[in-house]
């Protein structure tokens, strides 16, 4: 079974440029998460989807960040325009509906903003 | 919101020895789930072990075991017979059934294994 797929793995852009990250969760997983992870820190939730509905986006900086999961499967996270402080690893994870089910993480996208 | 605290930013252990990583959490709920995740350098985060709060028996997965103290809200991870491949960041996580599929993560403990 394929795991959570993310692309690209690495992205280097100049500040003020737009950038987009893509995630394909494990087949059948209704819940999809986008996290931001700074070096040496734990994941911080940006947005959580239940199917195509964003049920928790309170930590998403909506002035520059946007996300979508149109068909309740894969998802895209966008930053426009990027700032120096956005340099981090962006993790995607998915889980199924079971009460004790774990999250499965993708490899992440390492973003560097110059 | 629930909070998860890992008070040891860094730990080290000699190869083949045992090490314990600590985790405490704050909650008013009685039903929840706890997890330990491992993140090797530049690699994917993977599940190490999970514990259901309603189970008194501590979870065990091969060389990994937990000491779950519900009253103290403590959930430590013990790694026995440490191996070089155990070197990684370890994150404690809390999941509440009452808030859907929301996970709360600690800040992590960086484990070094000394040959």
Present the secondary structure layout:
The complex is a heterodimer of chains A (114) and B (115).
Chain A: E1 5-7, E2 10-13, E3 19-24, E4 31-37, E5 44-50, E6 53-56, E7 65-68, E8 75-79, E9 88-95, E10 104-105, E11 109-113
Chain B: E1 3-5, E2 10-14, E3 19-21, E4 24-26, E5 33-39, E6 46-52, E7 60-61, E8 64-69, E9 74-79, E10 88-95, E11 103-105, E12 109-114
Parallel strand pairs in B: 2-12
Antiparallel strand pairs in B: 1-4, 3-9, 5-6, 5-10, 7-8, 8-9, 10-11, 10-12
Which characteristics define this entry?
heterodimer, A: 114 residues, mainly beta, seven-stranded mixed β-sheet, four-stranded antiparallel β-sheet, 11 strands, 0% helix, 48% strand, B: 115 residues, six-stranded mixed β-sheet, globular
Quick recap of the structure?
With 114 residues, chain A is an all-beta fold.
Protein architecture, described:
- The complex is a heterodimer of chains A (114) and B (115).
- Chain A is mainly β.
- Chain A is globular, with a radius of gyration of 13 Å.
- In chain A, 0% of the residues lie in helices and 48% in strands.
- The N and C termini of chain A lie far apart (37 Å).
- The mean pLDDT of chain A is 92.
- In chain A, β9 and β10 form a beta hairpin.
- In chain A, strands 2, 4, 5, 6, 9, 10 and 11 form a 7-stranded mixed β-sheet that branches. In chain A, strands 1-3-8-7 form a 4-stranded antiparallel β-sheet, with no helix packed on it.
- Chain A has strands at 5-7, 10-13, 19-24, 31-37, 44-50, 53-56, 65-68, 75-79, 88-95, 104-105, 109-113.
- Chain B has 115 residues and is mostly beta strands.
- Chain B contains no helices and 12 strands.
- Chain B has strands at residues 3-5, 10-14, 19-21, 24-26, 33-39, 46-52, 60-61, 64-69, 74-79, 88-95, 103-105, 109-114.
- The interface between A and B is medium-sized, with 26 and 25 residues.
């Amino acid at each position: 079974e394929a795991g959570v797929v993310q692309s690209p793995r690495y992205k280097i852009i100049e500040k003020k440029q737009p950038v987009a990250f893509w995630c394909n969760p494990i087949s059948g997983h209704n819940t999809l998460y986008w996290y931001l992870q700074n070096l040496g820190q734990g994941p911080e939730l940006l947005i959580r989807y239940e199917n195509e509905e964003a049920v928790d986006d309170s930590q998403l900086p909506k002035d520059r960040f946007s996300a979508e999961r149109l068909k309740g499967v894969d998802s895209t996270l966008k930053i426009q325009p990027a700032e120096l402080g956005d340099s981090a690893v962006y993790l995607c994870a998915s889980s199924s509906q079971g009460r004790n089910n774990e999250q499965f993480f993708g490899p992440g996208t390492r973003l560097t903003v110059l | 919101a629930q909070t998860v605290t890992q008070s040891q930013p860094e730990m080290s252990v000699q190869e083949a020895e045992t090490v314990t990583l600590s985790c405490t959490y704050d909650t008013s709920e009685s039903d929840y789930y706890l997890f330990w995740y491992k993140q090797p350098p530049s690699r994917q985060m993977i599940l190490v072990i999970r514990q259901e709060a309603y189970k008194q028996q501590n979870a065990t997965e091969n060389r990994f075991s937990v000491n779950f103290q519900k009253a103290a809200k403590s959930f430590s991870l013990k790694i026995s017979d440490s191996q070089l491949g155990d070197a990684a960041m370890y994150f404690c996580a809390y999941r509440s059934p009452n808030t859907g599929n929301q996970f709360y993560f600690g800040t992590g403990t960086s484990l070094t294994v000394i040959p």
